[in-house]
Amino acid sequence: MDITLNFTPYTFRHKNILYLIALVAFLSSCGTRKYTVKSDTKAAKAADAMANLKSKQLYRFITDWTGVRYRFGGLDKSGIDCSGFAFLLEKEIYGITLPRISRDQANAVRRKDIDNLKEGDLVFFSFGGNDVDHVGVYLNNGFFVHASTTRGVIVDDLTLPAYQKVLVKSGSVN
């Protein structure tokens, strides 16, 4: 008994095309998945704080300075320190002339409870003991902007334990 299978090249080509179509359909279905950023991430919350600023001039000022590296005594975009950043921001955005040093800036502020802070208020820290040695500008929803010694000008979360432990004063300029 002789059995002959009758496959033609067209049949194989037809099956290969069907397999290819099925493969493409399968792979493209994977590509339609939507990827979203969790809205509770630190970056998303910082972006929300920026988006919720009342002053668009403040928004532009911060975005213009974001990422500028820290330089002790610096007062320009080649490098800036925390008190220099607060000094320039308060002067340009609010027309307020602050002292140049964070300790002196703290003395020019009327104390205010952290829960009552408004956009543009100042927050002061003591990382090295009892004296004020760092300053930032409050934005909203627990976020502030400052010139970090390690990350440069950045929007940061004031509710982080690292900041809560060293926060010594907050308030409005007198």
Automatic annotation (TrEMBL):
InterPro entries the UniProt entry points to: Murein_DD/LD_carboxypeptidase, NLP_P60_dom, Papain-like_cys_pep_sf
Domain NlpC/P60: 52-174
Keywords from the UniProt entry: Hydrolase, Protease, Signal, Thiol protease
Record-stated family: Belongs to the peptidase C40 family.
Full protein name: NlpC/P60 family protein
Organism of derivation: Pedobacter jeongneungensis
